[in-house]
Amino acid sequence: MGKDPKSIIDDGAMGFGQWLAVLVTTGLNALDGFDVLSISFASPGIAKDWGIDKATLGWVLSMELLGMALGSLLLGGVADKVGRRPTILACLVTMAVGMFGAGHAHGVSELLAYRLLTGLGIGGTLASINAAAAEVSNRRWRSAALALMVIGYPLGGAVGGLFVQKLLATAGWHAVFVYGAWATAAFLPIVWWLVPESVAFLDRRRPTGALEKINGILARFGHPPASALSEAGPAAERRSIADILKPGLLATTVLITFAYFAHITSFYFLLKWVPKIVVDMGFAPQAAAGVLTWLNIGGATGGAIFGLIATRIGVKPLTFCVLLGASLMIAWFGRGSADLTSLKTLVAVAGLFTNSAVAGLYLSFAKVFPTHVRATGTGFAIGVGRGGAALAPIIAGYLFRAGYALPTVALLMASGSLMAAAAVLALKVRDAD
Q1: Per-chain mean pLDDT for the chain
Q2: What is the pTM of this model?
Q3: Domain span including residue 95
Q4: How many separate domains does the chain show?
Q5: Residue 225 maps to which CATH number?
Q6: Residue 101: pLDDT band with limits 50, 70, 90
Q7: By C-alpha distance, which of 150, 88, 103 is closest to 315?
């Protein structure tokens, strides 16, 4: 008797096509990393060209994060209804348009509008690729695959940082967005050819010809065909935010969403303000981009290490520990450094802990939310969490304008990761269906 589609993916080997799809989600996350950080790379030039103060710059730095919150909340549910693949493709188009528009903006209002649009696309992409990476992977390698997807974000920032350092030496800040738009557009054919629809989604949604579509994907991955769809359960038709707020998932949803919100507030303080802070320390904008690059190199390293360790020990204790480390390192960053080499080392270690914590939370999303609401639940947590991301630069901007020194601001912003650790401690992490 043949196996159902879910069992074939869960219990079978990881085929080349599956790893290829995971690598594409890593690339998409890298693209998100560059797109989000592009405004950080460009911020010193924007502040200089348009003469805006730190409070206004905080809004400029946060606008695509507000878009990401909306995109995650709205489009995560769409991905659970129309599919992961079409949602990703539509979001890529949205991101490309937003980046291209930002590259040709002539004022703050116009730039804010295009960054909001870019954020909508990024938010939908994040919710979709987390579900796609989890569902294309087998049970044995799922944690590693998700960790690989997560490290794409700092890799995008790191590679983008190296590129931007050279770009800013000869071009203005507008060029950062234009090149980002072309890179985004280049992923459209890659996703079209290499990322099929999720077998788990097709099995749950059951569109016309679902079994034939599933067997075509399974053959592409080197697996035997399924003899029939999985047995339909009552959960198959529930695909809404209301479902993740029902008694069975409410406590989990609240805890993991708060943990993500609190940590992302701390995380984005570093990501968004490092270039400006480094410039204010007396270093050149090009050097500031280099420091941000090291933050992302540390983040990529931390994500990789986390993924390897997570295959052997539990995600929850590991995430708790790196959240504590993240809080400590952000507070330590506030002490500053007169030596550029020491500053790069400091932010690299901070990036290692902060991004490892993000990896732990993303792995937790895939474990605590079942398939039929995985993108919805992930999108909800990311969407609410990106509210913290959007608040972080604004809060820090007003704290700086109020006269608080960097050590005090950094200590206050580090408290988010500490509160996230407490929420993770109370969270029950288990493998969802």
Answers
A1: 85
A2: 0.77
A3: 5-426
A4: 1
A5: 1.20.1250.20
A6: very high
A7: 150
